[in-house]
Amino acid sequence: MLRVIVIGMGPIGVNCAKQILADTDLQLVGLVDLDPAKVGKTADELDGLGHGAGPKVTANIPDAPADVAIVATTSKFDRVVPTLRELMSRKIHVVSSCEEMAWPRYLHPELAAEIDAEAKRAGVALLGTGVNPGFVMDFLPIVLSSMVTKVSNVKVIRRVDASKRRLPLQAKVGATMSVQQFNHLKSHGKIGHMGIAESVAMLAAGLGREVKRGEVRVMLEALVADGEIPSLLGTIHRGQVRGMRNTAHWTGDGLTIDLDLIMALGENDAQDSVELTGPTPLKLLIPGGTPGDTATVASLVNFVRVLPNCSPGLKTMLDVPVAGARRVS
Amino acid sequence: MLRVIVIGMGPIGVNCAKQILADTDLQLVGLVDLDPAKVGKTADELDGLGHGAGPKVTANIPDAPADVAIVATTSKFDRVVPTLRELMSRKIHVVSSCEEMAWPRYLHPELAAEIDAEAKRAGVALLGTGVNPGFVMDFLPIVLSSMVTKVSNVKVIRRVDASKRRLPLQAKVGATMSVQQFNHLKSHGKIGHMGIAESVAMLAAGLGREVKRGEVRVMLEALVADGEIPSLLGTIHRGQVRGMRNTAHWTGDGLTIDLDLIMALGENDAQDSVELTGPTPLKLLIPGGTPGDTATVASLVNFVRVLPNCSPGLKTMLDVPVAGARRVS
Lengths: 329, 329
What we know:
2 copies of one chain form a homodimer.
Chain A: E1 2-7, H1 11-22, E2 26-32, H2 43-46, E3 57-58, E4 68-71, H3 77-89, E5 93-96, H4 109-122, E6 125-128, H5 139-145, E7 153-161, H6 167-172, H7 179-187, H8 196-206, E8 217-224, E9 241-252, E10 255-264, E11 271-277, E12 282-287, H9 292-306, E13 313-315
Parallel strand pairs in A: 1-2, 1-4, 2-3, 4-5, 5-6, 6-13, 7-10
Antiparallel strand pairs in A: 7-11, 8-9, 9-10, 11-12
Helix pairs in contact in A: 1-9, 3-4
């Protein structure tokens, strides 16, 4: 019975906690969030339900013994590091949704090397993962590439129909904004998908290439409605933003990578597709697309069972065995 | 520069050897086959080409130092064991296309435990892998399941159009046979896909269940032509065998697995599909299907680069990191 702490009580943390409560081979031993409005509440209460079972949120990591922590607090690797260090001092393995941590050496090579050494000394494994980065645009294409010997081009398209997603996601992709508002946020780095450059760097590494900081060309554009589209934020009118498109490109060493992420309302043909070009071309489709909301939670919880059996260090998806859906109950 | 020996000079071994000769980071240091007609020949010569580069086939494993051996000699785990033991005594890692070795504990739990202990003492990693078993019907569904927390049903369909494959495969699936001939071979266990029960056992293990020997229900049937179909063995007439269908079924512990493999001439809609049922259903398609001939070779060669970094033991696809197509040149 693995003892698990969840740190960061946003939607991902809350749903991880609820999932762990439902699993008979995992024991939820702590919930952590700095927000005073959340302290003292259970996961169910944070989800707007009744009192519910399990521990209550504390502002600090509880003293109770634990095996693994799920950390869902920030997208930035340098910001998650103090939490990693506290958990390492307690010999607790970590799986995190921190997007930069999916391939931390892209933006933070020195810090990543330091944390790797510290994790090895502490004897714990640390992993950043999720749906994207962590699966659709990086790990899955590498898995597919194991069936060919050589790849010259990788093209991954992920098209998410934000009409079917919760309100925070519709807001996040810019729904109902003017193009001017979108571009203002964009110029301040306050809109756009996190981790797409990390996906490129991981994918390249899985195919035997090294991508250095700043080499990935990331582009972001607003997608504009050409008619009325209903949204949870109100009607999107013609000319207003219905979502965003984020692309990333890298080429080097005989390999070209193109990632194309569309998250928008009014996208009918939602799907993930991976296309490998080379002596033997190969294509893979996930019709409807990997469901972002539930799949991030699933990948974090599934790795709780895998990490205690991994060698210590700051790991990536290229270092660890597969984490299948092992929930039996 | 990893030094590689290839053992077993059938089509898979020959193509692995040619692939390794083409890779600038791998060095082919030996070819082994017992067949006197093959001894003394290069990989190119065995492929019906000119003299070619690289070592010549020897009947015994050469004394030259080596890091990894590719073993493509037999489908049966107990028959590959003497080769594994010889390679372990030489501290050489092994990746094998032996179908039973993809999940050796299904048919040979005691022998698998012995070999695992011996490999750990020898400090080498041994892995059985390939397309099927090793990928389409076991590893790939487990990879997909990492995006959900719980799975109640797995259905994998692999439909191979044997019209597009080489003559030995068309013969292997029974093309041009009478149903009586097919059933005669079937009753002697001399026709049918190898490793489908191992795929079920691996898939179940990846989803947290244990399948015991004999629990998988495997079925084999001839598929009959309802009109004339050309083949490399001559025309298949109405009523003659055009291929085979192999299914495998297991249910237990809240999980049902159904694998459905069709390899036949006149199959137009070739594809691999994986369907996971559960609280969050998920589906994956490989249009055209994973190309069996080249992909087995690719998976063996890709794991040559991964095995030296694995911990020692008799490994399975559930224990090892992903082996992307790392060939750069």
